[in-house]
Amino acid sequence: MPDSQKSGQKGLSVVYVWLAVTFCVCLVTSNLFVPRLWQLGKLPLQLSGAVIIFPISYIINDLLTEVYGYRKAMLVIWMGFVLSAFVAVAAQLVSWLPAPLYPENQEVAESFNQLFGLIPRTTVASLLAFLLGSQMNAWVMSKMKVATKGKGFGGRAILSSLVGELSDSVIFYPLAFAGVMPAKAILSIILTQVAVKTLYEVLILPLTAVIARRLKKVEGIDTYDYNISYNPFITRWE
Asked: What is the 3-state secondary structure (H, E, C) of the chain?
């Protein structure tokens, strides 16, 4: 049986577009916030500023896969990838511009260059990690939905996000902070990030479940990915 849906809705709905835009904004802003580390209370643990925003992208990923299916989720993931790459290139180009004319503007320019000079490196790491993490999140969510016949949304959402976030963090932090932070600190931040992001998902799960049910009702669609290709380079536009 092909990619089967409980309703034959065609095209990209307004709701889908808004979810896609929100997903991409969360991804791009997360890359901007990555360099800002902060201590978790009085514990000897650090988190990236991206932890405030980035988990939202995984929640949206769950919603996209649950309602619209794996291929449409991958379409949004690729959109986020392209936009993040664009911001990274633009930031690098701006940081290469000549120094300001007036001395009073030099400090701002230097601060800008220092901050945004990190973005190409963090974005390259983020893009590689993001592609694997988001694809794994959508893949697990899709496969489990078919296997459970659509039951147990909460468990599927948490497990898929845990797999995706772990895949993302294991790739991202060593690439982004190698040579900047000691290996022990990188391992610590990986484990802390995954734990905090998963807790974030658990806490917001009741709202996510309500939104998923509402989306299915409003959109008139509930996709089960039967007999589809999970090749991440094959997306669905229609």
From this structure: CCCEECCCCCCCCHHHHHHHHHHHHHHHHHHHHCCCEEECCCCCCEEEHHHHCHHHHHHHHHHHHHHHCHHHHHHHHHHHHHHHHHHHHHHHHHHCCCCCCCHHHHHHHHHHHHHHCCHHHHHHHHHHHHHHHHHHHHHHHHHHHHHHCCCCHHHHHHHHHHHHHHHHHHHHHHHHHECCECHHHHHHHHHHHHHHHHHHHHHHHHHHHHHHHHHHHHHCCCEECCCCCCCCCCCCCC
Tokens of 217: 């009702």
Q: Hey, what domains does the chain have and what are their CATH numbers?
A: 13-224 (1.10.1760)
- pTM exceeds cut of 0.90: no
Q: Phi then psi for 39, rounded to 5 degrees?
A: -85, 140
CA 116, distance to chain mean position in Å, is: 20
Of 30-34, 93-97, 222-226, the one with minimum mean pLDDT is: 30-34
Q: What is the pLDDT of residues 12-30, one digit of tens each?
A: 789 999 999 999 999 888 8
